[in-house]
TrEMBL record:
Pfam families: PP-binding (PF00550)
PROSITE patterns in UniProt: CARRIER
Protein name stated in the entry: Acyl carrier protein
Domain Carrier, residue spans: 1-78
InterPro entries in alphabetical order: ACP-like_sf, PP-bd_ACP
Amino acid sequence: MTAPTVEQDLLRYLESRTKASWEPDRDLFTAGGLSSLFAMELVVHIEQVFDVVIAGADLRLDNFRTVHAMTALVDRLRENHAG
């Protein structure tokens, strides 16, 4: 799955769960799109869909502020897993 595909999946998931449209670089926390509970649901979604494990330092909020940040996280975790 390529970065644009990851981004599209995350945008679809966010839009389906929040019933709002999101830009990939919009801060989801300051915009009121994410609560701490929804952030945990998002972690589970990312782990299941993209076959990655998010733990430790990767659980920091900055990795989930924007769709771009989440896409970069998925890419980095996949690279680390492959390498």
